[in-house]
Amino acid sequence: MNQAQMMAQVKKMQAEMEKAQQELASTSVTGAAGGSAVEITMTCDYRVTGVKVAKEAVDPSDIETLEDLLVVAMNDAVAKAQEASSSRMSSVTGGLRIPGLM
Description:
This protein is of the alpha+beta class.
C-alpha cells in the first residue's frame, strides 16, 4: 500500500468516525434503578436529557434512598452509553483500540 492509499484510508476512517460520533450524540439510553422507580435518560455522548422519579420513590423522611437510586440509575445509564459507544466505534475501527475513542 502506498502513502497516498494510506492517507485516503485514514481520511475515510476519520469521516466514518465523525459520522459515528454524530450518531452517538443523537442515540439515547436509559438507566434505571428500583424497578424503574428512577430512570435517567442520556445520549451516548453523556448528556442527561431526562430524569423520571416515580411518586412512590419519594419519601421525605428517607431522602438517602432516593439519592442512592439516582446514583444507581445514573451509573446504569453511563454503562449503557459506554457500551453503545464502544460497540459503534469498534465497528468503525475494525476492533482496533484507539486511545480517546473507547
